[in-house]
Antibiotic biosynthesis monooxygenase
Amino acid sequence: MSRIAKTLRKPPYYAVIFSSQRTEGDQGYQNMAEKMVELATQQKGFLGIESTNDDELGITISYWDSLEAIQSWKEHSAHQIAQRKGKSEWYKQFALTVCKVERDNFFEM
């Protein structure tokens, strides 16, 4: 199974890049992260997700068909709980970037 998201949609679409540096310990983070991915995949306009991390940096990229879908996900009540816990418990710092994808290409051997 590929860890690279195949959006199955022709551009344009949107990518939300979330880069983060975590605090020490889990404090319920992994469980919440899994729930958020499961919930995001059920949202209207969701196209795919990619995520990776090491001891210093986490990067998650989610793909959406519209800015409205991104806004709706941002405002989802369960996601808002996760956002608050992220700010108060899980992240030392984070950055969020929303990009319009104009072109994509996928290669698979």
